[in-house]
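Hey, I was hoping to borrow your eyes for a little while. No rush at all, and the record is pasted right below:
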Amino acid sequence: LNGRYAVEGSGTEYPSGIQAKVMMEATGQNFAGEVVHKLGIHGSLSDGQFVLDALSVDHSVADIVVKGQVDLIKSKAKLRLTTDIANASSLSKYGAEGLAGSIRFGGDVMAGWDPEVSADVNGELAINRFKGPGITVSTIAGPIAAKVRGDAAEGSGTITLTGLDASGTTIDAIRLDFEGGQGADGGIAVGAEVGIGLIEMPDGQFDMEGLAGKLVATIPSDGELAATANLDVRSFRFGDEDYKVDGGPVVFSMIGDDIKADIDLRREDAPFLVGKIRGDMDSGDWKVEGFRFAVLKDKGLNAEQNIRFRLSENGAEDVQFQLVNADGNGSLSI
């Protein structure tokens, strides 16, 4: 421990009889292997109220500043917190390799610890020039809120990402509205609405106007995972000849080992890719009902009976697959 530590005041009877000032100016601290270049605390205690003028931490990874007031009588605190990570590459010491960019969070914290621990956090996240393995993002920003009541916790927020580039595939923007939490019984519930903007692949061979939808998942404390996703796929284009698909709904659901997916993508008001997928992850049995695929309008391949197969550690087995053209212009079977 390096630095100057000082406490001065008067009185012996708590709380109303004690008045005090606290000052700490430390340099070159090392706490359990964590390097803190500077650590400062300035505050005063009067009648059981501790006013924290500033707690500042200059850590090897982040700069942290906390200000506010702590009511030692009512066991409550109202604080303002800011955290700055100048370069996310410093997180590599915690196993997060290949990151870059600046990260900032600032918000208000209302906390209590009697009779149970409670906290309300409302703040703003701002990440600039983020870089991760295979991806870059210009900005990630939005409000975040969290609440803790004993063993229960919940959170919500609206996060917007702009200027995404993943190995040459670009997305102009993604908006994510989310909420979720864990109850005191251990059950978990999360939900999100997502909106994805224009998607473009390299060389102009594919672009999509985006997609939007809602995702919900629950895990009861004594039950099994249940999840649903309802997505609206917007129009997309292939190749140089401006081959365009109108898009359509894609619905996914999962309850335990049972999986369902319904796809209804259209082109020129006719089926482009249609089918109902049903699977059992326990048995490995899968089937596709009402499969239709048409590259050209009304000139596609249809499954006259359900497509069936079984997935095992050796791959697909017991495959029953037969597609035919309604006009007799071709067929495909396995």
Remarks:
- The radius of gyration is 28 Å.
